[in-house]
Protein backbone atom coordinates (compact mmCIF):
# COMPACT_ATOMS: atom_id res chain seq x y z
CA UNK A 1 0.00 0.00 0.00
CA UNK A 2 1.39 3.44 -0.90
CA UNK A 3 2.17 6.24 1.50
CA UNK A 4 -0.83 8.03 3.02
CA UNK A 5 -1.21 11.17 0.94
CA UNK A 6 -1.89 14.64 2.25
CA UNK A 7 -5.23 16.24 1.25
CA UNK A 8 -3.34 18.97 -0.67
CA UNK A 9 -2.30 16.38 -3.25
CA UNK A 10 -5.87 15.42 -4.06
CA UNK A 11 -6.89 19.09 -4.13
CA UNK A 12 -4.13 19.90 -6.61
CA UNK A 13 -4.96 16.89 -8.79
CA UNK A 14 -8.66 17.84 -8.82
CA UNK A 15 -7.79 21.34 -10.10
CA UNK A 16 -7.52 21.45 -13.91
CA UNK A 17 -5.16 24.44 -13.59
CA UNK A 18 -2.51 22.41 -11.78
CA UNK A 19 0.76 21.79 -13.61
CA UNK A 20 1.69 18.11 -13.34
CA UNK A 21 5.29 17.14 -14.01
CA UNK A 22 6.94 13.72 -14.02
CA UNK A 23 10.73 13.77 -13.67
CA UNK A 24 13.02 10.82 -14.26
CA UNK A 25 16.74 10.24 -14.65
CA UNK A 26 18.57 8.63 -17.53
CA UNK A 27 21.08 5.81 -17.28
CA UNK A 28 23.88 8.32 -16.64
CA UNK A 29 21.82 10.23 -14.04
CA UNK A 30 20.77 13.13 -16.27
CA UNK A 31 17.39 14.59 -15.22
CA UNK A 32 14.46 14.61 -17.63
CA UNK A 33 11.07 16.19 -16.89
CA UNK A 34 7.80 16.27 -18.84
CA UNK A 35 4.31 17.64 -18.38
CA UNK A 36 1.86 14.82 -17.64
CA UNK A 37 -1.65 16.09 -18.47
CA UNK A 38 -3.40 12.83 -17.51
CA UNK A 39 -1.56 12.35 -14.19
CA UNK A 40 -3.92 11.32 -11.40
CA UNK A 41 -4.29 9.00 -8.42
CA UNK A 42 -6.03 5.67 -8.81
CA UNK A 43 -8.30 4.14 -6.16
CA UNK A 44 -5.31 2.33 -4.58
CA UNK A 45 -3.31 5.53 -4.04
CA UNK A 46 -0.85 5.04 -6.90
CA UNK A 47 -0.08 7.86 -9.31
CA UNK A 48 -1.07 6.97 -12.87
CA UNK A 49 1.07 8.43 -15.66
CA UNK A 50 0.02 7.78 -19.25
CA UNK A 51 2.97 7.57 -21.62
CA UNK A 52 1.86 8.08 -25.19
CA UNK A 53 5.05 7.27 -27.11
CA UNK A 54 6.75 3.88 -26.98
CA UNK A 55 10.28 5.22 -27.53
CA UNK A 56 10.02 8.35 -25.38
CA UNK A 57 12.85 9.17 -22.99
CA UNK A 58 10.40 9.15 -20.08
CA UNK A 59 9.18 5.66 -20.98
CA UNK A 60 12.73 4.31 -21.16
CA UNK A 61 13.71 6.03 -17.91
CA UNK A 62 10.64 4.74 -16.05
CA UNK A 63 11.32 1.22 -17.30
CA UNK A 64 14.91 1.43 -16.04
CA UNK A 65 13.62 2.80 -12.72
CA UNK A 66 11.22 -0.15 -12.48
CA UNK A 67 13.96 -2.69 -13.16
CA UNK A 68 16.49 -1.16 -10.77
CA UNK A 69 14.13 0.17 -8.07
CA UNK A 70 15.08 3.80 -8.71
CA UNK A 71 12.91 6.78 -7.89
CA UNK A 72 11.04 9.22 -10.09
CA UNK A 73 9.64 12.56 -8.96
CA UNK A 74 6.24 14.12 -9.44
CA UNK A 75 5.70 17.85 -9.01
CA UNK A 76 2.24 19.35 -8.65
CA UNK A 77 2.03 23.15 -8.75
CA UNK A 78 -1.28 24.96 -8.44
CA UNK A 79 -2.23 28.33 -9.92
CA UNK A 80 -2.12 29.75 -6.40
CA UNK A 81 1.54 28.80 -5.90
CA UNK A 82 1.00 25.71 -3.76
CA UNK A 83 3.57 23.13 -4.75
CA UNK A 84 4.23 19.54 -3.70
CA UNK A 85 7.02 17.20 -4.73
CA UNK A 86 6.30 13.48 -4.48
CA UNK A 87 9.13 10.99 -4.76
CA UNK A 88 7.96 7.61 -5.96
CA UNK A 89 8.97 4.32 -7.48
CA UNK A 90 7.41 2.87 -10.62
CA UNK A 91 5.82 -0.43 -9.62
CA UNK A 92 3.92 -1.51 -12.72
CA UNK A 93 3.88 -0.89 -16.47
CA UNK A 94 0.53 -1.84 -18.01
CA UNK A 95 0.67 -2.42 -21.77
CA UNK A 96 -2.50 -4.47 -22.40
CA UNK A 97 -5.74 -5.63 -20.84
CA UNK A 98 -8.86 -3.90 -19.55
CA UNK A 99 -7.09 -1.14 -17.59
CA UNK A 100 -4.95 -0.30 -20.62
CA UNK A 101 -8.03 -0.30 -22.89
CA UNK A 102 -9.89 2.07 -20.56
CA UNK A 103 -7.05 4.60 -20.64
CA UNK A 104 -6.49 4.13 -24.37
CA UNK A 105 -10.12 5.15 -24.96
CA UNK A 106 -9.66 8.27 -22.78
CA UNK A 107 -6.49 9.28 -24.64
CA UNK A 108 -8.23 8.86 -28.02
CA UNK A 109 -11.20 10.93 -26.82
CA UNK A 110 -8.86 13.71 -25.71
CA UNK A 111 -6.38 13.70 -28.61
CA UNK A 112 -8.13 11.95 -31.49
CA UNK A 113 -5.75 9.79 -33.52
CA UNK A 114 -3.28 9.17 -30.67
CA UNK A 115 -1.38 6.22 -29.28
CA UNK A 116 -0.92 4.99 -25.74
CA UNK A 117 2.27 3.11 -25.01
CA UNK A 118 2.20 2.45 -21.28
CA UNK A 119 0.05 3.05 -18.22
CA UNK A 120 2.57 3.61 -15.42
CA UNK A 121 1.73 3.08 -11.75
CA UNK A 122 4.02 5.04 -9.45
CA UNK A 123 4.02 4.32 -5.72
CA UNK A 124 4.57 7.47 -3.62
CA UNK A 125 7.27 7.02 -0.97
CA UNK A 126 8.03 10.58 0.17
CA UNK A 127 6.20 13.91 0.09
CA UNK A 128 7.96 17.29 0.23
CA UNK A 129 6.08 20.57 0.59
CA UNK A 130 7.67 23.00 -1.88
CA UNK A 131 5.20 25.89 -1.45
CA UNK A 132 7.44 28.96 -1.27
CA UNK A 133 5.49 30.92 1.34
CA UNK A 134 5.39 27.95 3.72
CA UNK A 135 9.00 26.90 3.07
CA UNK A 136 10.18 30.48 3.68
CA UNK A 137 8.57 30.55 7.13
CA UNK A 138 10.03 27.13 7.98
CA UNK A 139 13.49 28.14 6.86
CA UNK A 140 13.48 31.46 8.71
CA UNK A 141 12.29 29.69 11.87
CA UNK A 142 14.79 26.82 11.68
CA UNK A 143 17.73 28.81 10.31
CA UNK A 144 17.35 32.44 11.45
CA UNK A 145 20.97 33.25 10.62
CA UNK A 146 20.57 32.33 6.95
CA UNK A 147 18.48 35.45 6.19
CA UNK A 148 20.28 37.84 3.83
CA UNK A 149 21.57 40.93 5.61
CA UNK A 150 19.81 43.33 3.22
CA UNK A 151 16.46 41.84 4.27
CA UNK A 152 17.29 42.40 7.94
CA UNK A 153 18.23 46.05 7.25
CA UNK A 154 15.08 46.62 5.19
CA UNK A 155 12.96 44.96 7.87
CA UNK A 156 14.50 47.26 10.51
CA UNK A 157 13.88 50.38 8.35
CA UNK A 158 10.23 49.49 7.76
CA UNK A 159 9.73 48.94 11.50
CA UNK A 160 11.29 52.33 12.26
CA UNK A 161 8.97 54.07 9.77
CA UNK A 162 5.95 52.53 11.45
CA UNK A 163 7.14 53.79 14.85
CA UNK A 164 7.35 57.43 13.66
CA UNK A 165 4.39 59.75 14.25
Features:
165 residues; single chain; Pnp Oxidase, Chain A; seven-stranded antiparallel β-sheet; alpha+beta
Notes on the protein architecture:
The protein has helices spanning 7-14, 57-68, 98-111, 132-142, 149-163; strands at 19-25, 31-35, 40-41, 47-51, 72-77, 83-94, 118-129. It is an alpha+beta fold and 165 residues long. The chain folds into two domains: 7-130, Roll (Pnp Oxidase, Chain A); 131-165, no CATH class. The chain has a seven-stranded antiparallel sheet. A hairpin with a 5-residue loop joins β3 (40-41) and β4 (47-51). The termini are far apart.
Give the SSE map.
Blueprint: H1 7-14, E1 19-25, E2 31-35, E3 40-41, E4 47-51, H2 57-68, E5 72-77, E6 83-94, H3 98-111, E7 118-129, H4 132-142, H5 149-163
Antiparallel strand pairs: 1-2, 1-5, 3-4, 4-7, 5-6, 6-7
Amino acid sequence: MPLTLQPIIRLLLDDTGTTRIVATTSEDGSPYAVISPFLHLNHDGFFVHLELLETSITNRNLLRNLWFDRKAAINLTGKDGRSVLVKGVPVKAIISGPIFSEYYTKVRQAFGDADLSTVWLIKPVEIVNETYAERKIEEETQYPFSVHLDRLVNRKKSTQKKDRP
